[in-house]
Amino acid sequence: MDKRVFFDTIGRSLFNGRLSLSRRDGIETKLSAFDVYGITDERWRAYMLATSYHETGGTMQPVEETGKGKGRPYGEKRKQDGTVYTYPDRLYFGRGDVQLTWYENYERMGKLLGYPLLTHPELALEPDISARILVEGMTRGSSNRGDFTGVSLEDYFNDHTDDPVNARRIVNGLDCARRIAEYHRKFLEALKIALVAFVAVLLLPSGLAGCKPGRVVTERIVTRTDSSAVWQLTDSLYQKERQIAFLQTELKRAGTENINFRSEARMHEIHYDTAAPVDTATGKQPVLREIITATHSRYGRVTQEEETRHGEASVAQAETTLAGRRQELAVDKQTREDRTIKEKTAASRFPYKWLLVGVVVGLAIGVGLLRLLRPYR
Fold first, then answer.
1. Which pLDDT band holds residue 22 (cuts at 50, 70, 90)?
2. 220-244 b/e with 16+ CB inside 10 Å = b?
3. Is the pTM of this model over 0.90?
């Protein structure tokens, strides 16, 4: 696929000729995810891009639901079956390219992808993770089923079916189904045009071989990486390190069981009246007194509160470190600008020092010549 042609085409047809860098990056991330999952059916790719376009309001970047679930059933600490939960202390409103909602969906998708989405639902806003959620949820993928509603792209785009309207059932019934089908048509058209352009470029040299002598054109591409790009790469790496830290915390929590110890001791004492005659019915003397003693002890230790505080502290520390790095970048940029200004100032100054040296040397040479010429007068 010729991406330049694809972006030019979709920019005109769906973005009014204003395909920003952010939107382009968002589309690139999803195209990369399609390649990782081996998705080659252009209808599938177009429908997932159309879904992201609709769910993100045309930004093509993961977003949070407006209002964060307020007034919605998933906007409270309640599961789909109505069960109230207290841990984790999170709300599972819409996030990402496809607006993932509900406790159960975050839990299921986290297990499928290997991310702690239940304890850290904000990870669904990471572009790479969001793109994987989009693909895994809309195809049969690892679970061999559509993980959002039970149906998937395989059900609506195959050798016998091409149904972009009912494909909306993969995510949310038939809500805005025809509008999204129109987005799908435009993305699909751009993908096909880009594919034709790519094939044409491959065939072009052989087609022109008999027309004119071949020429070798060498294109030199120079890539410049300044300190800003390096810091951006560093920040990206730091985000990955945060994800690893979250996974390690989740693994530690799963490996550490809550300790509960319970002991119970019972003592039953019966004192008989030995001075009384034996009861013929029981064959024992009457009971004088009966003492029952019960001792209970219970010890419990719950680690989840400590882990929650640790997770919050880790996030706060990560944000502080990231802010510090950005500040260092700003200082580095300012230092380079100051150095440039100083160099320009130094270059513009008149070289008075060297002028003075030249005058002194000239005087010394003049005096020497006068002394040499004096005997000949």
1. very high
2. eeeeeeeeeeebeeeeeeeeeebbe
3. no
